[in-house]
């Protein structure tokens, strides 16, 4: 990892409403006088990110959308100036395959795009690329390593390493080092891929800015009833919203007075809205759609408890934000969540996909307003002690500095 004038960050898409921790990390790196060059595979649509992040949007170099002539020129330039490297990358793209449909075609598409990124990286004299999530951007980084001889590293977060991904073994194995937001992922990957035994892993919890709005203020809320339930999660199958909705239907049958608000967008939202209607929850459940970070914080001010029902997570930023707002949390006891939530102290954990236990957790909070306050207070101090963005960023900078010393 050679010294250069900038840290280079590479995302699949950036900025994003559902990944506010990425924007937060970049902003704090810049606040600590780190020059961060930003790259992303895809340009997000206006409205898919917070207006306050417009400066990050403007600063990001986007690969797509792109004119075909630009792709052609960038690839021809590399063929002429680095013929051996381009030939090796082409062979790599055709060779890498691990059972996913059309993988070689995807590799070729990423190679063509990597040539455009390579041109920009070379102009900036950047020799190391840091990628968030082991998704498509990591696949491009794999090819950039061959094209330019640069190194790359990856921050892993959850589903990117827990759900089968194309070329995951190669992406992780070729990375210079890997940063994980929880210890669970490190232990899981070492067991899943024994060949990663010599890989350098760093454990770095996520961070939140507790000194500035919207997370610096805490709003007290009247005790239930009704129990105010909030869920902030993208609508896709892995988030398992059906479990929460069915649990709420049973709470209603048990004559527990509650209101629930669901924040997020995604492919299963319409299906979940239809399920809520079929369960006769239209008066109790409100679907708010995607919200900005400030609007999410306002919803947490409204809530008593923040709930997740996922099949898979890392250490969800939603829970850190809830604890910062002195809100009790309820979540499945999976992956990195027990590293974040202390059961019966800062929140309640239940077995994954166990509807009866989820119902019991919510009913327990509905019946015990003092427990809600106690868990909120304890969670707040835990968030302050372990998930401060300034500490996160200082430790991140230290990791980059240590890696430079290995050169």
From TrEMBL:
Residues 227-379 form the Glycosyl transferase family domain. InterPro entries: Glyco_trans_1 (IPR001296), Glycosyltransferase_grp1 (IPR050194). It holds the Pfam family Glycos_transf_1. One of its GO terms (molecular function) is glycosyltransferase activity. The keyword tRNA-binding does not apply. The keyword Transferase applies. Gene3D superfamilies: Glycogen Phosphorylase B. Keywords: Transferase. Coiled coil: none annotated. It comes from the Bacteria. CDD domains: GT4_PimA-like (cd03801). This is Colanic acid biosynthesis glycosyltransferase WcaL. It comes from Desulfosarcina ovata subsp. ovata.
